[in-house]
Amino acid sequence: MRLALRELRRRPGRFAVAAVILTLIAMLLMFLGGLLDGLLGSSTGAYRAQRADLIVYSTDARTSLVRSRITPEQRRQVEGVEGVTATGGIGSVQLGGRLGDQPASRTLIPTALFGYELAPRGLPATPPASGTVIADSSLKAHDVKLGTTLLLGPQRSPVKVVGFVDDTRYSGQGTLWGSLDTWRRVLAANIPSQAVGNDVVQALAVRTSGAAPSTVGGAIDRATAGTTDTLTLTAATNALPGVSQQQSTFEQIIGVTLVIALVVVGLFFALITVERTALYGILKAIGASSWTLFAGVVAQAVVVTLFASAIAAAVALLLDALIPPGTIPFDATPSRIASSVLLLILAAVAGCAFSLRRVLRIDPAAAIGTAS
Amino acid sequence: MRRALVRFGLLVVTIGLLVFLILTQQALQDGLITAFVGGIRNQSAPVLVYSVDGQRTLQGSVIAPPLEQAVRTTPGVGATARIGQGTFTVRVNGGPEKDAAIVGSSDPTLGTPTTLTAGRRPRAAGEAVGSAVDYSVGDRVTVLASTKGAAPVTITVVGLARDIQLNVTPTLFTDLATYEASVRAANPDATAVLPNAIGVRPAPGVDAKQLAARIDAASPEADALLRQQAADEAPGVAQVRQSFQVIFLLYALVVPLVTGLFFLIITLQKANALTLLRAVGARSAVLTRALLIQVVVVIGLGLVVGIALYTPLSQAKVGSLALRFDTTAVIVWSVLLMVLGLASALVSVHRVLRIDPIEATTGAGVR
Lengths: 372, 367
Description:
The structure holds two protein chains of two kinds.
Chain A: H1 2-10, H2 16-48, E1 54-58, H3 72-79, E2 84-99, E3 109-116, E4 132-136, E5 149-152, E6 157-165, E7 174-178, H4 180-190, E8 203-208, H5 213-223, E9 228-232, H6 233-238, H7 243-275, H8 277-285, H9 290-322, H10 334-361, H11 364-371
Parallel strand pairs in A: 3-7, 4-6
Antiparallel strand pairs in A: 1-8, 1-9, 2-3, 2-5, 2-8, 4-7, 5-6
Helix pairs in contact in A: 1-9, 2-7, 2-9, 2-10, 7-10, 8-11, 9-10
Chain B: H1 5-41, E1 47-51, H2 65-72, E2 77-92, E3 97-105, E4 118-119, E5 127-131, E6 140-143, E7 153-161, E8 171-175, H3 176-186, E9 197-202, H4 208-218, E10 222-226, H5 227-232, H6 237-269, H7 271-279, H8 284-314, E11 317-318, E12 321-322, H9 327-344, H10 346-353
Parallel strand pairs in B: 3-8, 5-7
Antiparallel strand pairs in B: 1-9, 1-10, 2-3, 2-6, 2-9, 4-7, 5-8, 6-7, 11-12
Helix pairs in contact in B: 1-6, 1-8, 1-9, 6-9, 6-10, 8-9, 8-10
C-alpha cells in the first residue's frame, strides 16, 4: 500500500490523464445532481415548507393546485374525520410582479402568491394583514426589500412585503405568502377565469394525530364520497408537475455516468496492472501477497478519485456561486457532493476489480523471467 | 486488436455508452422542447400577441379588452383571432381521467395547426384537431365538470397533427366557444373568460417583424412575438437548452480523453515492439497509419454500439413525451466524436514519431 501511494507521489504524471477524465466525470455527476437539486428545490419549496401531514385536492383536479377547488361543504366533511386535528386552506396564483415605483416596467418579477391559514415553516401563525405578504428570500435578487410594494398581474394589484422566508420557491418562482383574502382578491382581479367563490380554496393542508396520515387520508376521501383526493405531504410534493419525471430521468443519466466512471477506472488500472506485471512478480517473490498488491491498486484508484472529486466539488461550488439567479437552476448541496464522491469511490473500487484477476494470476517465477 | 479483444472491447463499450448517452439526451432535449412549445411553433398565426404580464407563456397571459382593441386597430394588421388555452381534466372515450391542454381560436385559419397528418379540420363547435401522439380520429374527449354540477363538455377529435403539444400535455385545438365552455364547466365561479393571446396575420405586403414592433408600440401591455420567437423564448426553453449544452460539452470532452488515454497507454506498452519494428525497417508512417486505423475502428464500433442502443430507445414514448430518431444528430455527433477521437490520438502519434530505431539496441524504446 505504501509503495502504491509513494508511486502516486513520485510519478503523478502517470495518473494525470485518468485524473482528468475522472474529474470531468465527477463534474458531470455533480452538475447533473446539482441541476436536479436546483430544479426540485425551486419547484417544491412551498410544499416542503408546509407543516401538515396531508394535502387535500378535489378529485377532478388530478393533484393540480390551480385546477383544484375545495368547497366549504367538503371542508366541513374533512374536519369531521377522526384523526384530523387542524385544517388550513391553500390558494395560489402565478403572476408577474413589478416594483411599486415602476408600474409601466416591461421587466417582470416571476412570483407565485400563496394564501394560507395553517402557517408553513418560517411564517407567522396568523397570516399577514390583507394586502401585505411575506416574500421568499430569493426575490431579494430582484431588488425586493422589506417595505417594497409589488404590483401583481395586469391589474397591478398592490401587495406590500412585510417579511422574508427562506426556501419556499414554487414552480421555479419566488413565492409571496399572504391571507386567503389577499389571494382571492388578486386572483379574481387578474385571472377572472380562475376566480373562486367565497370560502372556496384550492386545497387543504391537514394536520393529523393518532392513526397514520395515509389512513386518515383514506378516511377523508371516504367521508367526501370520493370527491377529494388526499395525498401525504411527500406524495403531494412528488406529484407536483415534472418532479417525479425530472427525478427519474436525471437518476438514470447519473447511473449510466457512474457505469462509465467504473469502466474508465477499470480500463485504466487494468492497463496499469498489465504494465506492472513484472514488478508485481518481483514483489510477490519477496513475499507480498496478491491482496496487498490489489489493495495498492485500490488505494491509488481511491486517491485519484478523491483528487478528481475535490476539483469537481470546487468547480461545482464555484458554479453555484457564479450562476445568476433565474438562469440555470443549479444548487450544489453538501449532501449531493458527498453522495457523488461516495458513488464515484464505489465505482472506482468496483472498476479496480477488473485488475484483481490479473494480480491473482501473476506467477512470480514467470514474471521474474519476463523482467530479466 | 484481434488478440486483445477484452482490452479493445472495453473501450468500444465505454465509447458506445457515451455515444448512447449523448444521443439519448439530445433526443430528450428535442422531445422535451417540442412537447413544451410544439403547439406554438406549428400553429398558423405568424404573430402572437401576449400580455406583458404573461411572461411569454400562453396560459399565463390574459388579454384585457383595451389591449385587444389596441392590437386590432394597429396599422398593418390583416386579421386577428382570440386564442384561449387551459389545462383540463378529461376522459378519453370514457376511460380514466387524464390531463389535456385545450386551445380555442375564434378564427379557424389563425392559431390552429398548420398541417394535419390524419382526418380533417373542425367544421363545427365541439370538434378538434388532436396531438397525433396522444389521440386517434374519432376519440371523444369529455372535459370534466367541477363538483358543482355543471354540464361536462364533449369534444370529438376529427383530425390529427404532429408536434402540437403544449407543456408536455396531450393537446386539442378547437374553436373558442368550445374552449370557453370547457373553462366554465371546470370552474363555474369564473367571472369572465378572456383570451390568452391574439393571433395576428399581417396585411398583404406587411412584414411580420415590423408588425410585431408596431403592436408593441401601440400598447405598453402588448408583447408581440413572431411564431418561432414565441416558441424559442417561452420560459424554460432556453434553460433546458443551456443545461443540456453544458452536459453535451462535458460528454464530448470525455470521449476523446478516454480514447486518447487508452491509445497512449497502448503505445507505451508496445514501446519495445514498435522500436524493434522501426529498427527492422518499418516506416513511421506505417506505424502511425496502423495506430490511426485502430482509433477509427474503435470509435467506429463505439458509434455503432451507441447508435444500436439509441435506435430502439428513440422510438419510445416517455409519458406524453415522444422521442424521435434524429438522423442529423447521429451524423453530427458521429463526425464530431470521430474527429475529436482522432485528434486525441495525436499524442500517441507524436510518441510513435519520436521512436528512435537505434534504441532497439539499448532497449530504451519510446521515451
